[in-house]
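Working notes for the structural subgroup meeting. M.R. asked for a predicted model of this chain before we commit to crystallization trials. I am recording the input and output together here so anyone reviewing the notebook later can reproduce the run.

Input as submitted:
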Amino acid sequence: MRPWTAREGALRLSDGRVLAEHATLANTFWSRFRGLMGRSTLLPGTAFVFPRTNAIHTFFMRFPIDVVFVDREGRIVRIVKRVPPWRMGPVAWSAAWTVELPAGTLVGDEVDGVFE
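Returned structure, recorded in token form:
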């Protein structure tokens, strides 16, 4: 199962909640390499989805992000809120996908479930 629906371009949970209206799939060497580095912001309602990734860094970034780690079945295995710029990690060993969202997207502890 893929945690991103290319047909709709939205990132949604199985209960219907939309975390991002527009998700960018970083599936080429250059899109994965560039990611969010050097950008001035990540707009609300947007996300970057990195397949085959279980760890991130925020080197060369200018803003904090929320991160969701997702396993091969689309289940959320770890959530890290407000990861500051210029940090190594976090890691989620069982993750197969990593989703980067604007800081503040993941409020409270209610974000769990499965991506469709």
